[in-house]
Amino acid sequence: MARAPRLRTLAVAATAALAVLVPVAAAAAAAPADDVVSELVAGVRVEEDGSLRVTETQRYDFGRTPNADLRRTLRIRVPFDADQDEVFTVTNVRASVDGRSAPVSRDDSDGLATLAVDLGRPLTGRHTLRFDYDVQGAVRRTSDGLEVSWPVVQGLSTPVRSARVNLSAPAVSWAVCFAGGAGSTMPCTAAQLGESSAPVFVQQGLGTGERMTIVAGLPAASAVRPDQRLDQRWSLRTAFSLTPLTIGLLVGLVALAGFSVFALWWTRGRDTGAPKNGQEDGYRPLVADPDGRTRFAPPEGIRPGQMGTLVDERADVVDIVATVLDLAMRGLLVIEEGGRPSRHRGPQWLIHRTGAAVDDLAPYERALLDLLFDGGSRDVVSLPEIAGAPSERLDAVRDQLYADVHARGWFHHRPDAVRSRWTTAGAALALVGVVLTVVLAITTELGLVGLAVVLTGGVLAWGGDLAPSRTGKGSALLARLRDLRRYLATADGSDLPENHRAELAARFLPYAVVFGLEDRWAETFAASGRPGAPDAGLEWFRAPEDWHRIDVPDSLDAFVAALSNAISPGRRLRI
């Protein structure tokens, strides 16, 4: 073994110094009148299977206080390196007192085997105790051959004046011995390798709880088989070890998760019969009536809130705001811009309910009027009052929007229900993954496998956004809405008849809000008025006395932002 010469040199160098100190230590150990082991003689035989047969005889001097039992601890788990513990197995434990067998009880915990010997009666004076036991795990393989290492003297509750250990093993090539506390490298009093290659180890004076560890080298060709057992010590680093197995399982599970989400989307989440190009049907947003009047004709008469839900598969706040503007353009509401309470605060906004008939309203529009006007109990509402409305009413508007787009045959299933199923399944799988991660991290090195399950759940939950699928009818309508968005994003209003430009530009505004293009059409609407001339107001909008039509962009932007914040504080969603 590579360290053998160094250990032998250390042992020889320290022997001289210890020769002076040992008498003093022995005298100090013998001074107390408490229990003491005056002499300990042990024999250790190394078997071919690597086990050790230990026979230990103690000349035990009991003190003035009688003792009826003795306790001895053997350390059966010790650190080997940064990640592993060396584990020993102690079996066939037997004890006797003065040649009479003594019962031994045992408790293994915290890496210790605690032995309790029942002496049968309280003892004083000098007696002979004998321990016999077998040890597995004390023979390890090294680069230079085999090494036998075992703390023969350990776990005694009394000092030991003199200890001697005889080792019986085939062809011992070197031997050293250490004495002192745990991990001590102080050499024993003597470690001799005789002509018969039977090492003898001697230590004079051991304090209570101190150890005497013998170490011997055997040639690599020895008939003795190594039986060292190493056990992985738990740590976060080892629990989440990057090994070929854990990396393979991690990559495999993540790949399986990705494939599963793709398969679900391919079979259930894809739109049916979506045209590749929305221009194939030749949709145009402006049509001429038989009397020659130009009007705006949204595809299939779709409303802004329905359009927003169909486009992004969500009933967003912006869809509700656009619906409020659409109801105003249709004569059911009037939006009023009040004065500014201070220089640093925006205008106060009021929404009035007109007496127009509501027979043709969709259920989600009726739910929106309930939200705005407290179920019909008032006809005028301020934005702070809307912000204080019960959240259940906002939920009802969204619920009706989802039900509407499904009932019209645009989606195979309600988008919110499909998304919720995927998200719930993903969250449940992620929770299972968290529990599995904890269990695997504590008991194995496969903590990364549990994390892969967590990631799989996250991917599944994320895939919920891709889950809602449009029908062929919904896909065809979506293509036409792309044409509408293209028109709203590129047109400058020059194609609008001059005598109806303001009216048509106003009708475009709620749809432009859904697409985030309201500024452009607010400017088109403002340009339809006479610059510099005050406006008395519009049918759908009441303004302060000094308000001009050129102020529409600022007013509209302020109203959309204020209403968005009132419906959902701090949020303004855009497509």
Shape: rod-shaped
Number of strands: 22
Radius of gyration over C-alpha positions, nearest whole angstrom: 45 Å
What's the helical proportion of residues? Answer: 25-40%
* Major beta-sheet overview: 9 strands, mixed
Mean pLDDT: 85
| Relative strand content | 25-35%
The residue ranges in which pLDDT falls below 50 over 5 or more consecutive positions are 1-33, 570-575
Structural class: alpha+beta
Kindly, what is the distance between the CA atoms of the first and last residues, rounded to a whole number of angstroms?
Answer: 73 Å
Could you explain how this protein is built, in words?
With 575 residues, the chain is of the alpha+beta class. The chain is 37% helix and 27% strand. The chain contains 14 helices and 22 strands. It has helices spanning 4-30, 236-239, 244-269, 304-312, 317-329, 363-372, 383-387, 391-407, 415-443, 447-462, 472-490, 501-514, 518-527, 552-567, and strands at residues 36-46, 52-75, 77-79, 84-87, 89-97, 100-102, 104-109, 112-136, 139-142, 145-153, 160-168, 174-180, 190-193, 199-206, 211-218, 230-232, 286-288, 294-296, 333-337, 349-353, 380-382, 541-542. The strands form 5 sheets. Strands 1, 2, 5, 6, 7, 8, 11, 13 and 14 form a 9-stranded mixed β-sheet that branches. Strands 9-10-15-12 form a 4-stranded antiparallel β-sheet. Helix 9 runs antiparallel to helix 10 and helix 12 packs antiparallel against helix 13. It is rod-shaped.
Structural key phrases:
575 residues; 14 helices; disordered C terminus; 37% helix; alpha+beta; 27% strand; 4-stranded antiparallel beta sheet
